Amino acid sequence: MSETVVATRTFTEKLEAARDASITLAACNAALKNAALEAIALAVVDNADRIIPANQLDLANGRENGLSVGLQDRLRLDEKRLASLAEAVRLVATLVDPVGESVRGKTLPNGLQLSQVRVPFGVIGVIYEARPNVTIDIAALALKSGNAAVLRGGSAAENTNRVLVDLIQGALASVGLPRDAVQTVDEFGRDGARQLMQARGLVDVLIPRGSADLINTVVNESKVPVIETGAGVVHVFLDESADESWAVDIVQNSKVQRPSVCNALETLLVHEGSAARLLPAVLGELRASGVTIHADERTRAIFADAVPATEDDWSTEYMSLDLSVRVVDGLDQAIEHIRRYSTHHTESIITNDLGNAERFLAEVDSAVVMVNASTRFTDGGEFGFGAEVGISTQKLHARGPMGLSELTSTKWIVRGSGQVRP
Amino acid sequence: MSETVVATRTFTEKLEAARDASITLAACNAALKNAALEAIALAVVDNADRIIPANQLDLANGRENGLSVGLQDRLRLDEKRLASLAEAVRLVATLVDPVGESVRGKTLPNGLQLSQVRVPFGVIGVIYEARPNVTIDIAALALKSGNAAVLRGGSAAENTNRVLVDLIQGALASVGLPRDAVQTVDEFGRDGARQLMQARGLVDVLIPRGSADLINTVVNESKVPVIETGAGVVHVFLDESADESWAVDIVQNSKVQRPSVCNALETLLVHEGSAARLLPAVLGELRASGVTIHADERTRAIFADAVPATEDDWSTEYMSLDLSVRVVDGLDQAIEHIRRYSTHHTESIITNDLGNAERFLAEVDSAVVMVNASTRFTDGGEFGFGAEVGISTQKLHARGPMGLSELTSTKWIVRGSGQVRP
Lengths: 422, 422
Hints:
- The structure is a homodimer.
- Chain A has 14 helices and 16 strands.
- Chain A is α/β, with parallel strands linked by helices.
- Chain A has a seven-stranded parallel sheet with strand order 10-9-11-8-7-12-13. A four-stranded parallel sheet of chain A has the order 5-4-3-6, with helices on both faces. Chain A has a three-stranded antiparallel sheet with strand order 1-2-16, with no helix packed on it.
- The longest helix of chain A is centred in the first third of the chain and has 17 residues, at 30-46.
- The N and C termini of chain A lie far apart (66 Å).
- Chains A and B meet through strand 2, helix 10, helix 14, strand 13 and strand 16 of A and strand 2, helix 10, helix 14, strand 13 and strand 16 of B.
């Protein structure tokens, strides 16, 4: 099936080839990168007859190995999904190239001209699970930002990813770019992930995408710098002055619109002064949408149709139609609760009190803090980045939704005319 | 001697106290932080009679344990050095507070107002060796950027650092800030460093300062994100068209002005077309300053007063009056040499050829790339940052000289009026 003609290479040989390819990509203008993206989009749509059978094989293996229904759904590619993947690649082609952007600049008193410009990282490693769409997405984002990508996509999607990477490599070659700019290391199995984490000096940054377990493993074991795209134990706090219709709409949207994603609401905190006023409507609407309420005692005194919350519930990212609910004494206790249980992804306060809004924004230490808005807005697309690499919950390098510019580093350029330091 | 009244605390208790203090600092305005800096500066100068005897004790122990003369010099504090440390702290007080600075912002079509603002990291861990000046420097920089600092300064400076941290804590308390905002964990010995590297979730970023060995250990073992301040195998390339006086002055300045620092020149590459014209003057001047030339054959054919270069020399950071010199075929070979041996700190081309200058700037992948300037300019002070945390040779988060803003993260603030995602 495969058109690959390259003899079997060692892991290090593959990474060195990625490094060489990254040097070509770094010097590549946007027009050529966009031509490669267009070729990838075309290849994805035109080769459904190669992709879908490989995907069917992965799905059959998955069913045999007891892959959950949710993961099976993530794994599945059909013509419609392939078309929307191609559309996403074409969208990346329309984005501004971040490489070469001047971040800061000045002329020093001695005449030296300084400028800090964006440059690609070089080689990006990505470790993910059972999501063939990530293969296309991340290849497109890496390419546009001038980076080579080395992918470990996991055994569950191995056949699909092999075909996708082969198509991407063919598209790269068709415009004269090196095939090695996008590679999979799936043939090394679990050892591929382990070796990627050890490859300091050959891989510039490692991005894990997937379960909390996967991310924790990479964060703890990697010697390569990691960008952590973390879990979301996301909170909304209904303050004493919260508008009822905003409270109902924002909680409903945050929890129910797409419960399986990281920006979905997991814990609702309610000021004791507004609990009786707001909870019946807010929780009633959620129950009507099939949400199971895990509530503390004070909540259940107001809204009986709930199960008792356990200590574990406060730190659980359900990713399902479940919600933890707690009545708090006020803003201080809400902030304290968030400090203790949040994963510092997104938190929103619903309030009409300016002082409380500003305190919440200042004192809650999360990647995204909101006033009177749905937590579902924490998203690269919604933020206008045009694409999303993931949502960083770490503080180093990138925090919150990451777009193309978060896939770049910078370098300082100094232009002189013989200056020496006195 | 010590005024500390706190009962002995566990490592985790100390880090939790640092976390609590960091919350206070994050909300602290610049005026109060500057008052604390002034109190620290005063305390350093006024307490020479406590600091110097402790330092003498460390020096005596150092001599007994065979500490090198160079490290003994770094360890030594006298009244003059204390005065200049205090001056450096006062300089930090004059710098603009990075916290709260708006990095990006926009209003989305649905009316949501987004802004990305600088926030402190939280708790910064610093692991360093035998340099009590770092204790004061990093405390001042951390404080100004709203971060708590947990310091592991090493056994060689333990007595000095204990007094310095006690004075800093007293200064913090005198203006009403928490003493725990600056702490040493030296009492835990080597285990303190090990535990800092494991303290993911309690320490937000770890900065190693010191030898390549120390930095490599931290980079490889830390589970906490690290900012790597790396070694400098720094190159100058004399192109065919290099001006002779610029070549002589820039090489001399880059190598001789302060050979023990990371931005000092270590390897000189010379275009074969200019070697006969430039090397006699360039290397003659260096020899007159006592520099030992480690040269390849083509160099020694032109300039005999040199020892043969070994393969190891090309990757050696001498930090002394030694220089590796190689004649190359041209720009391509120069770039190839740099790609192979450089630590990606700073490289400079001396040329009058515009195309070659631009190629060098674009293709050399180092933190700082220069044309016609001394490599000694890679420095936070020279770049106008007012202070320097170190020079990052990694690509994540910060690259090149780091000032106060590199000690911050960001968060996104979203202000809405009931928006939900369609």
